[in-house]
Structure formats: structure tokens, C-alpha cells
Amino acid sequence: MLTHRKADHVRVVLGGDVEGSHRFWDDIQLWHTALPEVDFAEVDPSVTFFGKRLKAPLVITGMTGGYPGATTINENLARAAAEVGVGMGVGSERAAIVKGQFPESYSCVARYPVPLKFANIGAPQIIPQREGEKVLGVDEARAAMQLIGADLLAIHLNFLQEMVQPEGDRRARGALDAIGALAAQMPVLVKETGAGLSRPVAEKLQARHVVAFDVSGTGGTSFAAVEHHRAKAAGAEREARLGRTFWEWGIPAPVSLRELAPLGVPLIASGGVRSGLDIARAVALGATAAGMAGGVLKAASTGYEPTVNELRHLVHEFRTAMFLTGSRTVADLQTARYSITGLTRQWLPP
Ligand SMILES: Cc1cc2nc3c(=O)[nH]c(=O)nc-3n(C[C@H](O)[C@H](O)[C@H](O)COP(=O)(O)O)c2cc1C
User: How far apart are alpha carbons 14 and 57 in whole angstroms?
Assistant: First the structure.
């Protein structure tokens, strides 16, 4: 079941028509600097995230694992991430940890010197969903980290997705305490899955030892859309309709980033990042790194060469944005001038 679901997600996303309709990152306009007073060759896009040096502020966020086809995808991503010097996460590891399903589809990542790696489990899996069901605790979370040699454990919040999934896990009570119990034992990053994090949610988590966040806001892959397609194919009318209704639900990624920036912890900005210019917009707004999932999936499922090419294009675009804002370092870019326009501006609290 789980194996089918993970394969379905990749297939549905590759099939298209799963994105939000508004590109919120396009509402962030970086100001052009006509006189950069820096040579393009001098522009240094490297950053430090959680003590690890990345050659550019980019993390490929968790997508897959747990079925045979996922090995190729994760291997292409890991090899390319190691070559270009960016971070990477894997998809939810429950299948491998609890059911022993295809652990090599995750552990293949450990073979490459990826500078920063994120293990992944879901918040619904750390609280009991059904009578007698085994939840993932400290031992399982440690096993998930060990399987890929992770630096941090990413715990995803995906209750929108669970509502639209015909077989979804809908118990959420107690997740905060359960996350806190894990975060007291290991470095935990909490991420959304395309519906964004607000400041009150992040503050509660920060008070429970969570050390970093990935905003994963609205504007890119919509899991309401992904599950809409799956529900429709399964003849689950109620969920198919719910997925349509909630297709655009969530906090736009740049708005979520602005919400969390004052917390002063490392932040990944993901949700609709599709170019190196989007990465620069995210950094200017306060992200430590940008995160990308759906935008690299096609290349990753095609082969290593397309994947490494895509990452190189992204870094070149990012360096160009640095040059054109007169930023020699990423710290300079963090002080670049920008305007917030359109729908994103309307979203921001006064
Ligand atoms: C095919 C696919 C599978 C995903 N599976 C997971 C997952 O298992 N765990 C997780 O935390 N996020 C998962 N995500 C969510 C991404 O990490 C990311 O938060 C989200 O897709 C928004 O980024 P994007 O617009 O760049 O795709 C998945 C995304 C995709 C496209």
C-alpha cells in the first residue's frame, strides 16, 4: 500500500497539473544594481547550514524512497548534489524503518559525499493513528538518520494531504509533544509539505527544541492536487472533490518565510522555487537556503546528467542574481533591496 502510494506520488507529479496557480516568488522583485563593483568571477555563493558548507544555498527537499524505482531517483539526486555541493533530503522513511521495504532506495544516498543530508518521517507517524499501531519513536528516528547518514531529522507536517488521501491519517493531537520528545534527543527540522508554516506554529515548535524549519509554502507542488488525482483515479469522490476545493490552500512560501525570519534559526524556503532567481529572492527575504522538490523531479527520474545540469543551471542563475544585485557574498545578498508586489504583498499582515 505504502509502496504504491510513494510510486503514485512521483508518477502523478511527473504527469503535471499539480501546482498552485500563482507564482508567489515572482512577486518578489530584487532591485537591479547597474554598478555592481564586483567581478562575476569573485561572486561566492557558498553558505554554512548547521555547520556544513554548501557551495550554494540550495537543498533538494525530501521526495521519495520505499519502492524499487525510487533508488534511481535518489541516487541521481545524491550524486548530483554531492558533485555540485548542495544539500538533500529523502522522502518519508517509514516504509524502510517499520516494514523493512527497500531500505537501499534510501541508503544509496549515503554512498555520495552530499554535504548536508536530511532524514524524513511524518508527524502523523509519531502519534497513534489506530489501536495497536506502532508509532515511530526515538529508536526509529535514529534508525532513519543512520540509514542515510543524516545530519538532521526532518519531520513533515502534512495534514492537508492526509485529509485528501482516501486512506489518510487524521489524528493530530499530541504531535507537538511527540515532536518535542524527538527534538530533545536529536537535531530536528520541521517542514510543511506545500501549505506553509505560520509564526505561532513555529514558535511552539521552537520552544520544544526544534532547531530549523523548512517553510514549504504554497505556490509550487500542491499535495491537495496530487491527492485529488489519486482519489479521482480510485473513484473516491469525496476526497477528489476536497482536493479541488483545497488545491490552493495554504500560506504562500514567501509569506511563510517572512513570518519565520524573526525567529533567528536556519530556514529553508521551499514551495514553488523553480529557478536560481527564486533562490536569490528567498535568500534576500531571510532564508538560509532555498529548497526544491517538484522542480528537479523530472531531471532526477531521467538520469544523472540531466540532474547535475539542472543543478548547475540553478547555481549559475543564482550567481547571476548575486552579481546583478552587487552581492559578492550571500551575506551581501541578504541585505539586497527588494519590493514585494501583487498577491504576496496583499497577503502580508499590516
Ligand atoms: C513526488 C514528491 C514526493 C514528496 N514526498 C515527501 C515526503 O515523503 N516527505 C516530505 O517531507 N515531503 C515530501 N514532499 C514535499 C516536498 O519536500 C516539498 O515540501 C514540496 O513539494 C514543495 O516544494 P516544491 O514546490 O519545490 O515541490 C514530496 C514532494 C514531491 C514532489
Answer: 25
Ligand 1 atom 2 nearest Cα: 63
- The CA 40 to ligand 1 mean position distance, Å, reads 33
Question: CA 110, CA 79: separation in Å to the nearest integer?
Answer: 10
Best residue among 216, 222, 297 to mutate for probing ligand 1, ranked by most atoms within 8 Å of CB: 216
pLDDT in tens, 216-255: 999 999 999 999 999 999 999 999 999 999 999 999 999 9
Q: What is the CATH number of the domain that holds 197?
A: 3.20.20.70
In a domain, 74, yes or no: yes
Q: Are 321 and 277 in contact (CB under 8 A)?
A: yes
Q: What angle do CA 176, 179, 184 make, to 5 degrees?
A: 120
Q: How many domains, in total, are found in the chain? A: 1
Q: Which residues line ligand 1 (CB under 6 A)?
A: 9-10, 13, 61-64, 91-92, 120, 154, 156, 191, 193-194, 216, 220-221, 270-273, 292-295, 297
What cell numbers appear for 3 in the block?
509502496
Nearest atom (ligand 1) to Cα of 91: 8
Q: How far is the CA of 294 from the centre of ligand 1 (A)?
A: 7
Residue 319: CB atoms within 10 A of its CB come to 19
Examine residue 346 and state whether it is found in any structural domain, yes or no.
Answer: no
| CA 214 to each of CA 81, 172, 247, 260: distance values in angstroms, whole numbers, following the listed order | 18, 19, 20, 10
| Residue positions counted in the chain | 350
Q: The domain containing residue 244 runs over which residues?
A: 2-31+40-339
Q: What is the pLDDT of residues 114-144, one digit of tens each?
A: 999 999 999 999 999 998 888 999 999 999 9
What is the residue with the minimal CA distance to atom 5 of ligand 1? 63
pTM (2 d.p.): 0.98
Whether 142 is covered by a domain: the verdict is: yes
Q: Cell 559525499 identifies what position?
A: 113
Phi, psi dihedral angles at 155 (to 5 degrees): -110, 120
| Measured distance CA(340)–CA(24) in Å, rounded | 10
Domain annotation covers residue 301 = yes
Residue type, 76: N
